[in-house]
Amino acid sequence: MRAQTLGMTMSSMPTSRKRNNNSRRTKILVSILGFLCLSVALSSCSRTPKNNADSSPNAESAPLVSALDDQQLAHVKECNGRRVSSEQPVDLMIMQDGKLQPFAILQPGQLVQLKEISDPDLITSSYLPLDRMDQEGGAQVLIDALQVTPSGSWLNPTNHLLERDFAVKLKAGTRMKNDWDETILTTSTEQTWLVYAEKEEAYGVELQGRIVWVDKSQAEETLERSGTAEMAATSLPVLMYHFFYSEADGQSRDNVNDVEVEEFREQLQALQDRGYVALTMREVEMMMKGWADVPEKAVAITIDDGDPTVYQYAYPVLKDFGYNATLFLITGWMNPQLPYEFFQMREDGLELQSHSFLMHQGGCKAGHGGRLLCVDSEEGVKDTRQSLDYVDGGFVYCYPFGDVNDHAVEILKEAGVQLAFTTEYGKIKPGMDLYRLPRIRVTGGAGLDRFIKSVE
């Protein structure tokens, strides 16, 4: 079974848990009994480190506040089940032997997901548990809700990568970083974590459904374990959609790229019934670069152009099934600021990536006329970077009209693109050219049997 939390320890995995017994100020007195009752009713956990560079000013003395006034209690309840962050470093704590112990330090501006306590009347302490971070024995990782602010973001990601056959024991003070090399949290103790990905200088471990990276130099040792029995994929179907319509709304198909919304629902139902998961582009990247394994039953869903019918018809269906999808946007055709509809879809897990800024138009004689084939290199790099910036951290590109040549590939490499998709038919496999990746076009009205055959 896949472990889902920080420092996941299993009975079969050796682990070292030296805890720092520094107690915080002495406001712990009246609350311990009531807090322990709360802990039984909750369920979730995590970790945090301590080092001089990252330590929170309160790391030595975090009180367990139970005598909350009405305003404090209202704030704590507002944080319940939400993603939260702080402008200052915040200690994550763990209850051990009736005492709060330092676990890790959440860095400024970084988000963590809190577990939802179904009955808010059970909340009597300012400390709330983090989601998907349970420790051995059911201990929970906690955060003082009075030190954080609820975020408008509701995204709660899911990791689809397969566990590796080893874990790493990390030093206290290990920094866990995201894909942009930003530190999310720093461990306060020695901790053992399952490994899901590995690149040259770092291990990928799971933090609340996302992969974060730890430098290999921070691993005191690696610990062998059985890993997962699930088969890893050797190829991946990347599905390509464009437009959607609804017969119930009196609409009809104009061309093969139009997929009726109930047909789309039927396709996703077929995937779910057969046990398929939908990968993020980061997961696709890690598979293609040999950093991680993905399940044998996996797909990636892409939708080109950013047509309004995506929000109207496809987005609600994707939400119903909890599937990821990637929208390739022609960003120069959009408002200077990301429209609300796309912001909302991104918050619900749909990824936004580049379909160019203003290259999706004629201008070149080759192919279908996409400008990237013959545009000046400097202009092409500028256009590509502008589109990646618009989608806020983009790293994947979809060629306008599917047109690609060596000149276009060099432009994308210089602009920092990591993966690029064409409209050529086929599944992707590790070892392929990362800048000429094929996809499987989903045509409207082709029938469910053909769809399933194209995936399997």
From TrEMBL:
Swiss-Prot/TrEMBL GO biological process terms: carbohydrate metabolic process
GO molecular function: hydrolase activity, acting on carbon-nitrogen (but not peptide) bonds
Pfam families membership: Polysacc_deac_1
Entry keyword S-adenosyl-L-methionine: no
Region: Disordered, residue numbers: 1-23
Superkingdom as given in the UniProt entry: Bacteria
Start and end residues of each NodB homology domain: 297-456
Keywords: Signal
CDD domains noted in UniProt: CE4_yadE_5s (cd10966)
Biased composition (Polar residues): 1-14
InterPro entries noted in UniProt: Glyco_hydro/deAcase_b/a-brl, NODB_dom, Polysacch_Deacetylase
Name by which UniProt lists this protein: Polysaccharide deacetylase family protein
